[in-house]
Amino acid sequence: MTQRKPIVGGNWKMNTNRGVASELSRGVVDGLLHTDGVETVLFPPFPYLLLVRSILRDRGSSIKLGAQDAYPQPDGAFTGEVSIAMLKDCGVQIVLCGHSERRHVLGEKDEFINAKVRAVLEAGLECILCVGETLDERLAGHQDIVTTRQLKTALAEIPGDWLARLTIAYEPVWAIGTGKVATPDDAQAAHKQIREFVGHLYGGEIASRVRIQYGGSLKPGNAADLFAQDDIDGGLIGGASLSAGDFVTICKAAAASARARR
Ligand code: PEP
Known about the structure:
Blueprint: E1 7-11, H1 18-31, E2 39-43, H2 49-58, E3 64-67, H3 84-89, E4 94-97, H4 100-104, H5 110-122, E5 126-131, H6 135-139, H7 143-154, E6 166-170, H8 184-202, H9 204-209, E7 211-215, H10 220-227, E8 234-237, H11 244-261
Parallel strand pairs: 1-2, 1-8, 2-3, 3-4, 4-5, 5-6, 6-7, 7-8
The structure holds phosphoenolpyruvate (PEP).
């Protein structure tokens, strides 16, 4: 079986302030000092990117710096937006694209998300592409149709060799911030189907290497069961990433699951 290093991201969303961002990132760095076997990313709000970068750098941490979003155009009259070059300039290594809040609160469409994924990967950065169905779509039995459509459009014109820098986050919308978590079996089934679809687009070799994280009310209490599933390669964490202790526990659970698979 292909060994994939789990990846755990902390998406702080529009939370924290300078003091909290500083304390939280220090807490995560200190808590993970002796943990390897998991790739960790912090996604602070834009104004705190440089602050978090300096904390990670000062402590020689391998935790990556992520941005919650990016605009696909290189520069110009796009008031309020942030370019990928600006993010790179701030030390960002990885960018979230297609998060459900951007899709469903801010109205981003699959084609726009594709433009972002292309621009991020073209710039040499890593990308986490989020996909997932709403509750109505799940109740209608359309989970696979929805995630397949989102993936197909978001990955249009993305060459296979760029996929080494892409992680897919399966985040059922009904589980995000709701406290309702997908069962390990349901999440595994969705991840397997996503991996098969990547195989259909790019072939089995690439599909076996691409990492697929789970996101949606992942907490210390349910992390181990989810991470034990064959096709779940870590998690994207919202609420629980605002507690350094909870986030560190989740990262350690991901590292432990990778050790158990060896
Ligand atoms: C997220 O924001 O990607 C997320 C999964 O949030 P939460 O963990 O709070 O459900």
